[in-house]
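HK97 gp10 family phage protein: structure, please.
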Amino acid sequence: MIGVKVKGLDTAESILRKLPQSVQKKALSGMVRAGAKVILEEAKKNVPVDTGSTKESLTIQKQRSKDKNIVHYGVVPLASKVKRKRFTLSDGKKWSIKGEVASGYAAFFLEKGTAYMQPKPFLSTATSKNDEAYEAGKKYLVKRANKIIGDAKR
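Here you go.
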């Protein structure tokens, strides 16, 4: 997981404070997830594709925190298991794998490299979309706040 710090959250914080306490956590969680979605889309665009399994394994995952007021979402490759996977390599050869294969396993090696392979960072470069992620989160929060306020007026 790649960590990102976002500055300029004063607008989002002022919107959150106007919402009822019971709704604040859900709204904050949705806001962070909306921002993480932008990072996920950028990571999927940047990931080197051979079989496509690493790209398919990228997802947004909520992560626990000791402080209940902090919400963590990460863009992570899941080591999901695949029963049968068919793919075509770049040289045109067709392959089929039977059994269980950890599809997110290679992501770390692609990102950081190995003794035999140069790094091909895709997660760390995806964080360059920080500003877009913040705007997506803020847009979600404003939309959610307007919906809650509209429902309360009825």
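Notes: The chain has one domain: 10-153.
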